[in-house]
Design goal:
The chain is α/β, with parallel strands linked by helices. The protein has one domain: 3-Layer(aba) Sandwich (Rossmann fold). Helix content is 26%, strand content 20%. Strands 1-5-6-4-2-3 form a six-stranded mixed beta sheet. Helix 2 links the parallel strand 2 and strand 3. It has five helices and six strands, in the order E-H-E-H-E-H-E-E-E-H-H.
Length: 202
């Protein structure tokens, strides 16, 4: 769980801010990610950071579950609802994993932010530093960060994260997963009817 406060004084770091329930959110996410993926990229990794025990911190694992096995030749997911990449597992798991040359890593996590950004999806070039909001010193991860701003940065974490609206998390996760899937499908030139999510009927 990160705790970056987002405001208009840092435009150079913000690639895109999208309302979580915008019907075009997957397309905006696709467009932004596609513009960030370097030419020559051979494989994309998604690191879904968070817990499967706390609703407000389940965004990353939720996205990981939706994307699992969608593009096995070009997309690898680390962290899902079955095997989350949480504060107790992220360091040992990442220390055993090395990303090969010509790969692109997308990190996903729930974060805290100013009131202006709550209920938004924020995409930013550069790594994400998980656990910042909880005072944890965890290594930064990723070439690109996709963050769901679920609470204000002055929220009472103990109760706020436990009772975060699951509809908010579900909608954010679905839109982020669709956007990533669309970007992968376009970048690696999959047919337009290739399934987007690891869910029947999607």
């Amino acid at each position: 769980m990160g705790a970056k406060q987002y405001n208009q004084s840092e435009p150079k770091f913000l690639e895109k801010v999208i309302p979580y329930d915008d019907r075009l959110a997957p397309l905006f996410i696709r467009n932004t990610l596609y513009s960030l993926i370097p030419e020559g990229t051979k494989h994309i990794y998604v690191v879904g950071i968070g817990s499967n025990l706390i609703s407000g911190d389940s965004l990353g694992p939720f996205v990981g579950t939706l994307l699992r096995n969608t593009f096995p030749d070009h997309l690898t997911v680390l962290g899902n609802l079955e095997y989350p990449m949480d504060a107790t597992t992220i360091v040992p798991k990442m220390s055993r994993h090395s990303f090969p040359k010509n790969s692109f890593v997308i990190s996903i996590d729930s974060v805290l932010g100013s009131i202006d950004f709550v209920n938004s999806i924020v995409l930013r070039r550069g790594p994400l530093q998980p656990g910042l909001g909880l005072g944890q010193n965890l290594p930064p991860i990723g070439d690109c960060s996709v963050m769901g701003v679920v609470l204000t940065n002055d929220a009472v974490l103990g109760s706020g994260l436990l009772y975060t609206n699951l509809h908010l998390i579900y909608t954010m996760a679905t839109n982020i997963a669709k956007g990533i899937s669309l970007a992968v499908r376009q970048f690696f030139r999959y047919p337009s009817d290739h399934p987007l999510l690891h869910v029947n009927g999607c």
